[in-house]
Design goal:
Largest sheet: 6 strands, mixed
Shape: globular
Number of strands: 8
Strand order of the largest sheet: 3-2-1-4-6-5
Distance between the termini: 49 Å
Order of helices and strands: HEHEHEHEHEEHHHHEEHH
Bound molecules: guanosine-5',3'-tetraphosphate
CATH superfamily of the largest domain: P-loop containing nucleotide triphosphate hydrolases
Structural class: alpha/beta
Length: 319
């Protein structure tokens, strides 16, 4: 799936993070608990390497609790990293986040040595909701201060506790194809960037193998594991009356229904990837990406030779 989504403001955000990171004590990365691997920004890993990291698996109320446990254990095993699950709409758990920051940077958090926390996440992951619940009207947004760029905002959470907020950021291209589908299914990607039917078919394919029962209950279907993805989508359209006439199903409408039911949590608590699955997808994606790069380099070299008149390497060997 070809998805392009790197508008100019994302370059600005990237620059702002690169600049700010030098004086940051803890990086909070907000992840979508339904797709933790796919919602982690690989560019952020490069930008923030070496900083204590707090991974927040947000929207855990929508995610499979057993799988959330696996992901938390996966992240907590990484050096200088802590992970917590959160429902950003509930205010009390957000305080856990402040506590976790103190644990990651115990010498910070007073007026002499304030705690400086950078919060990042992909669009729609719940960053604004979390900040709103954490600040509960006490916070002062101080985005116009000197030294604060337009691509960030400083929020004073408490005396000696500063939160630097950055706009939601996706990365320039997807290496893991499955991540593209999962991000689209979750609502992180604008509607114009993907095809609903394609995303719904991928989603149903995963669900029929891992969450068949709740899908069957919700759409009143039977034995979907034995059905083709297209048949499931067709059946969903029929059950929900998404018809075009002459008995044909409106597949676009059926796809929108399937995606909406997943996003809203009506299918139950679902997580679209495990740490093991994601590691396999990533490894395969990296191989494909390397192959793609080799082809691209060859095309570019050929173009340079033809248009910039770089001498073609002599294949006859030395005379
Ligand atoms: P962003 O700043 O990262 O872009 O995301 P934002 O806070 O705007 O949240 C995006 C959507 O996710 C909102 O729903 C918000 O209510 C929802 N959300 C955020 N955190 C959680 C959570 O922990 N659990 C659940 N279930 N939902 C969460 P929306 O439909 O776009 O808006 P609204 O109608 O709910 O306000």
């Amino acid at each position: 799936m070809a998805i392009q989504w790197f508008p100019g403001h994302m370059h600005l955000t990237r620059q702002a993070i690169a600049e700010r990171i030098k004086e940051i004590d803890v990086v909070i990365e907000l992840l979508d608990a339904r797709l933790p691997g796919s919602s982690a920004n690989p560019m952020l890993a490069d930008l923030t390497a070496g900083r204590p990291a707090l991974k927040v698996l947000n929207k855990q109320d929508l995610a499979d609790p057993v799988r959330t446990g696996h992901w938390l254990a996966h992240y907590n095993a990484q050096p200088a990293t802590r992970a917590i699950g959160l429902d950003a709409t509930a205010s009390a758990p957000a305080q856990r986040l402040i506590k976790a920051c103190h644990e990651l940077a115990p010498t910070r958090g007073n007026l002499v040595k304030p705690m400086r926390v950078l919060i990042c996440g992909i669009p729609n992951v719940g960053k604004s909701t979390l900040i709103n619940t954490m600040t509960s009207k006490r916070a002062a947004k101080t985005g116009d201060e000197a030294g604060i760029t337009k691509a960030e905002q400083r929020i004073v959470l408490a005396d000696g506790f500063y939160l630097y907020d950055t706009p939601g950021m996706l990365w320039p291209r997807i290496i893991v194809a499955k991540s593209g589908y999962n991000l689209a299914a979750s609502g992180a990607v604008g509607r114009n960037a993907f095809d609903d039917e394609e995303v719904a078919l991928e989603l149903l394919d995963y669900l029929k193998h891992h969450y068949a029962a709740p899908v069957e209950v919700r759409f009143r279907l039977e034995a979907i594991a034995a059905m083709k993805d297209e048949e499931i989508l067709d059946a969903i359209g029929r059950k929900r009356g998404a018809l075009l006439g002459k008995g044909k199903v409106n597949l676009q409408k059926a796809a929108e229904i399937a995606i909406h039911e997943f996003r809203s949590g009506n299918l139950g608590r679902i997580t679209l990837e495990t740490p093991e699955e994601f590691a396999l997808w990533l490894a395969a994606g990296k191989v494909l990406d390397a192959e793609r790069q080799v082809k691209k380099d060859a095309i570019e070299l050929d173009r340079a030779i033809r248009f910039k008149k770089i001498p073609r390497p002599d294949r006859r060997g030395g005379d």
